[in-house]
Amino acid sequence: MRASNRLSAKGAAALGPGKYSDGAGLWLVKDESMRGKWVLRVTVHGRRREMGLGSFPAVSLAEARKYAEAARAQVRGGLDPIKERQRERREAARNLHVLKDVALDAFETRKASLKGDGKAGRWFSPLEIHILPKLGRVPVADIDQADIRDCLAPIWHTKAVTAEKALSRLAICMQHAAALGLQVDLQATVKARALLGKSRHREQNIPALSWKDVPEFYASLNDGTVTHLALRLLILTGARSGPLRFLHESQVHGDVWTIPGETMKGRKDATPDFRVPLVPEALAIIEVAKAHAREGFLFPSVRKGVISDATMARLMERRGMKERPHGFRSSLRDWLAETTDAPHDVAETMLGHVVGRSVERAYRRTDFLEQRRALLARWAKHVTGQSGQVVELVRA
């Protein structure tokens, strides 16, 4: 009698309930319904194991023999075929993770390093808008440079900044997938960039009003509304619109406005708070704004929350101006450069910019508060139509 290949396909189909050996450890086990299953008996590390190879007749005799021989080969190689199959299934399951799930998990992991735990959505939105609609349901293991190129090509030259953000966020997601143990191509985004080529987009600065024209505009903001008051304080302090729009009464102590570090652009939660000196003109505006305050916020919107950046921009747009609120920071910076002797570090700190390398910042403990106060006092004289001489600063 043959040691193996004892059964035939036709004979196996005709067999009744029972256990039938094909040899070399392969068995067909049939039940009363005439259906059955294939079982392979092997000895691994001195221990007898039984391994299912599929149901009968869905798995044919030829297929069962093929699966059995592969398992025997693993045993000869010192492996447990049952554990190997379990491992392969786990890997297959991991590789089925789609990009959307990985992206959400990556976002959750990074929230602690984002402003406000990423609630504004700016980190995730490039992925959500430009990547996930096309690739969100694709397993990360299947994503290659061609997929990424086809996804970003429509905006690569027209929305270059957004496309770059989407690509960098996707690279982070691919790295996150690799850290999860998924098989991904970590060079896919790099190769996609090569396929996309150099962007034809040219960065344009936000239009800014000349510092010489700021007094006339400032004087026109005279109706005491929330929008007018917010724009006036924006001009006087040189602050970004985000922290200003969310200015809360609790942030003002005497003649200093303390902006929480996590709300500063490009900064993380560990960054110290940023102090803004408030000159008399700015303090007067805050006092008037308190009459409009809601839940402590000095610049509330009509319905809920605070006014949007678009609210201030629309005011300028309605006047036929191409300039935008953020441009007043440039107005201030140009004024500093052209009419004062402000040192570079002081001028940059006035705009809340991080100055110097990390080691240099570690040793420099001053935030130039009093120097900035003197400069903002003169800036206030300028924007309110008064004259002032060049300010001599005490060097830190």
TrEMBL record:
Alphabetical keyword list: DNA integration, DNA recombination, DNA-binding
GO biological process: DNA integration; DNA recombination
Record-linked Pfam families: Arm-DNA-bind_3, Phage_int_M, Phage_integrase
SUPFAM superfamilies named among the record's database cross-references: DNA breaking-rejoining enzymes
InterPro entries assigned: DNA_brk_join_enz, Integrase-like_cat_sf, Integrase_catalytic, Integrase_DNA-bd_sf, Integrase_DNA_bind_dom, Integrase_recombinase_N, Phage_int_M, Phage_Integrase
Gene Ontology MF terms: DNA binding
Residue ranges constituting the Tyr recombinase domain according to the UniProt record: 204-376
PANTHER family named in the record: PROPHAGE INTEGRASE, PROPHAGE INTEGRASE INTS-RELATED
Similarity annotation: Belongs to the 'phage' integrase family.
Protein's UniProt name: Prophage CP4-57 integrase
Species for this entry: Paracoccus haematequi
Gene name tied to this protein: intA_1
